[in-house]
Amino acid sequence: MLYSKNQTKKLDKELFKNPTCEYRGTPFWAWNCKLTKEELLEQIDNFKTMGMGGFHMHVRTGMASPYLDDEFMGYIRLCIEEAKKKDMLAWLYDEDRWPSGSAGGIVSQNPEFVMRNLLFTTTPYSPDFKPKKVNVTGRGGTREENGCLVAAYDVVLNDDGTLKSYKRISENDTAEGTKWYAYNEAAVPTPWFNNSPYVDTLNKKAIEKFIETTHEKYYKEFGSDFGKTVPSIFTDEPQFAVKGTLSFASEIRDVFLPWTNEFPEKFKEFCGFDILDKLPEIFWELPDGMPSYTRYKFHDFVTELFVSSFCDTIGNWCDGHNIMLGGHLMHEDTLERQTEYIGEAMRGYRAFKKMPGMDLLCNRHEFNTAKQCASVMHQQGGEAVLSELYGVTGWDWDFRGHKLQGDWQAALGITVRVPHLTWMSMKGEAKRDYPACIGYQSPWWRRYNIIETHFARLNTALTRGKPKVDVAVIHPIESYWLNWGPSNQTDAVRRQLESNHRMLGDTLLMGMIDFDFISESLLPDFCKEGSSPLQVGEMAYKTVIVPGCHTLRSTTLERLEKFKKMGGNLIFLGDCPKYIDAQPSDKVKPLYEASKVVSFTKAAILDALEDQRFIDTRIVRTMGGLAFSVPNGTRTDDMMYQLRQDNDCKWLFITKSLDPSTPDVDPTRIIRVTLDGTYALEEYDTLTGEIKPLPAKYENGKTVFERMWYMHDSLLLRLADGKNEGALPINYPKTRGKIITKKVPVKLDEPNALLLDMAEYSLDGGELRPMEEFLRLDNECRKTVGIPIRMKEITQPYKITPTPPQHEIYLRMTFDSEITCKDVKLAIEEPENAKIVFNGNVIESKADGWYVDKAIETVPLTDVIEGENVLEVTVPLGERTNLEWMYLLGDFGVRVDGCVKTITKKVNELAFGNIVNQGLPFYTGNITYEFDVTVGDDGKLAVRTEMYRGGLIDVLIDDEVAGNIIFSPYTFETTGLTPGKHKVGLKLYGTRQNGFAQVHHTPGVYFYQSPNSWREGGAMWMYEYQFKPAGILKSPQIFE
Prior knowledge:
By secondary structure, the protein is α+β, with helices and mostly antiparallel strands. Among the domains are: 1-94 and 357-465, no CATH class; 471-610, no CATH class; 614-733, Immunoglobulin-like (Sandwich), CATH 2.60.40; 752-890, Jelly Rolls (Sandwich), CATH 2.60.120; 925-1039, Jelly Rolls. It is 21% helix and 29% strand. The strands form 13 sheets. Strands 38, 39, 40, 42, 43, 46, 48 and 49 form an eight-stranded mixed sheet that branches. The chain has a six-stranded parallel sheet with strand order 10-8-3-2-1-14. Strands 15-27-28-34-30-31 form a six-stranded antiparallel sheet, with helices on one face. Strand 2 (54-59), helix 3 (70-85) and strand 3 form a beta-alpha-beta unit. It starts with 12 loop residues before the first helix and ends with a strand. The mean pLDDT is 97.
């Protein structure tokens, strides 16, 4: 049991103040280099400092130590033993990179275990075929002509593109209409899977081999620690070959479906008919708008085969070996993505009996994704919900973002936080592995315990007892399957289903009506017969919503009929479902007419659920620059909550659900909170650990209180029987104070940096070529000599046979300087392999330290001279070499004009504003701004700074940390100071954005921050440097 401390009758207040490891985060720890005992132990110590409760040992791009060998297992053992010493947890991960299943390519070396897809095409195999492009994913979806014919068809379409007729014919028959061929093809080897293909996740024997290769090996070595120091093993993004559709019904092109060698036989056993007799119905619409039962059963069967072969096989093994299955499936977010990659997410969660999970990338607000996980966990009586969060947010993601994203996930049931990610090393391609890295490479890493302890305290309460949820929603995924046809015919319907699905989740959650989803495929096992309330596993629902479903299962209808008959509150949104089990039926109509029918609009939905409301949040007053935006008395539409019953008390967590439009202008509001029932309230402050009574008013059997609500606020309350009458004083923000508008002295924690990422170059002593950016010229040189290029999909170093590089690249970099400067250094990876010449002086390539990451070593240079400076670096070129950006470090300033960089005088003082324009464009470390204040006889001091770009701000008084400024209202207050002059320091913790991010990406254009985004081309790329603002951007106000 993960949360054994929750068995106490009441939450231990000391546990709340100082939560133990199981309540704390356990980040992805990217093992992406040559492992060493010393580095492993040091980084575990770092995690402890950061407030983490453990770590996921996760092999990622750059791994140079062989995977799953004895040495690797020895490192796992080392980390488990160190976790024991530090009262931490060591979490396993089941793969070399992701998706899970191939064991780094070991499993898929057996051709019977390789992922397969069905190629549906009008073009038969040809002996002259050549692949048009490299399949970089190895997960299907490209024509390979490496399989066998399974069927051929004569397809005739009506004028409107619907199926007029089709029949199965032989390979050599002549078709009356268009002849289509279906081939069973295998995925091909790819560098991502270490020159193997992905595994066949529809083949149980393949997954059993995966377990034998991975899980059994872990169990043999560490089984005695399972369920103790080793609570779980993480599986990551398993999937089947992606399902395709035609864009236009009449088009002629290749389309792909997931497949496996025994597909036809297993399908017939599951569905009772031969899928090959009816295959065209998956691709084309039937006439007169009729749904295809074949299409419906295909999606249902593929989902069941995937879940039973992959998820259940691993889940059952974990259940039998005292370890929780953790992790998440591929693309759980939308109806479309689920259909394409996994069929249905909720069905897969049945295997994650104690801890289903999700991932959250790019700071998307995927409320329904979290709800799918939490719903199955609630119904199965599980312990936790896991989330891999903060991924792909970029280097400039700050503590405000960490809290906001984590808060709404906590409200939706997330308790096991897996922050994405921390790297063991930034060497080579590893530094582009979906930053930001939250480890020691980020300047703020030692302060992360502020964030992690907040969530750990929250978890001590939100893992207790049982969730109080009265409303359930039938999940509409199966109605979406019916419409998986040509896009020109089905896209509008699919979009409407998708829009309704998201709108309903948003409306309920931000209308302060909590709910769970019901999976139709899981309902028969969770609910043997209908009742009121509807008992679904461990949960009982007073209200059930049918959200515009086109089809319902007969098993669902049976339970809803009994639920309604016994007095349950059944609501249909929109039209009556026309189909039962995807076949035309009027059976739903009597139930529909006897139930509450509501239009698919926000107001109508919330009005229909008003009698289910426990909490109401209303705006009393809005202040700040956005006071005009919402009328007073309006219900909030950007908050959500979780309510739990814990023995004789309840826990209520309320938080913001949406990010502010700007982090700088807070539409500060006074919020009136009304709770159904009479309660004595206690506030558990998750940022300070303080516990205090919260006074309230009591009206008509309800508990009412008002409070100032800033844009990063959240609130955890304990609700007990009784009253605590009174009014909570409203502390209004301070008005204008003394503004510091002049330049102030600053201290930098690191030397300033000049990024060196572009150079004239030559290959193997050839002619000097025009200036180019390093990553681009590296790949150009690789293409020239026939070495695999470096992109996201590269083979792991441990799988590449070490051979001495046979080529070299000469780089010539120039920059001007307005000053002479001593004690400068070059930050460069693997300096021992480089030949360095600076201003004609041969430099000894001997490192004397490191910059940002231990893999980026520093080499002393001769002085920077006034005028033009020339740096020449020659580096080897081979399959395992890495040409990476370099940095000139020293006590100087930098000016950037487009592509032109100039050294200027040292920065000793700054005005409050963007540091990019003040000599620090590439500086990514911490800055302390210093100024004097005079404290009056009352000993009070307050400092407000409302606009900053960095991780957070520490406030120092006389060189000692006194507090911090992170969240709105961006004010630090203290008392008890001696009257007179004091030195105040505002220490802004930097981010690595302007030195390590995509500084050549065209601004204003969205991009996915994958490793390949550093190598964009065309209009997405520009040589001129593009910076984001950094520093304290607005003059602080001092209240003395």
